[in-house]
Amino acid sequence: GLFVCGIIYTIYRVRIQQVLKMYRLRSSIARDLHDDVGSALSSIALLSNIAQDGKTSARLKPEDLFNRIGDTSRRMIDLMDDIVWSVNPDNDRFSNMLVRMREYASEILETKNIEFTFKVSENIDELKLPMQMRKDYFLIFKESLNNLTKYAEASAASITIEKQNRAIITTDRKSTRLNSS
């Protein structure tokens, strides 16, 4: 009887742990959506009201307001895409994230005419990352590329991702443009 009760109790504890894990995951997604999407929608609503009233103390032209609304909307779409992508269990393998990282690097760097290489060590493809870690890693990667395009004045970039012991190491190197003026 004690053995059966012990097994039932163990199954119950495992089930409770699964429910708590799911609750924490759902809470994290809800926080992300509330914070990021809520602020973007508030910004769009505010800019829309200003454009509709036609009165701005900053003397912004209507086309400037509409450009800001469009930019905010596009950022929100990208953010939603990132959240949905990171939650999808099909993307647990690191190789899927590498494809997404390469596509993002291509999209961002090529629009700024920055040539780039994207190198990945062989021992990293089959690595699996938890959802939150995958999301955080990708957001850090995106931010570093955005900073590279905004501030580095680079003509070329080299992105290397490798696994050393238990750490994933990402490096990017830039070559700067020489202005002939």
Residues in helices, as a percent range: 55-70%
Radius of gyration: 23 Å
The number of helical elements comes to 4
Structural class: alpha+beta
Could you tell me the number of beta strands? 3
Strand adjacency order, main sheet:
1-2-3
Describe this structure in words.
Helix content is 65%, strand content 15%. It is built from 4 helices and 3 strands, in the order αααβαββ. The protein has helices spanning 2-53, 62-87, 94-111, 131-151, and strands at residues 115-120, 154-164, 167-176. It has a 3-stranded mixed β-sheet with strand order 1-2-3, covered by helices on one side. Helix 1 (2-53) packs antiparallel against helix 2 (62-87), helix 2 (62-87) runs antiparallel to helix 4 (131-151) and helix 3 runs parallel beside helix 4 (131-151). The termini are far apart.
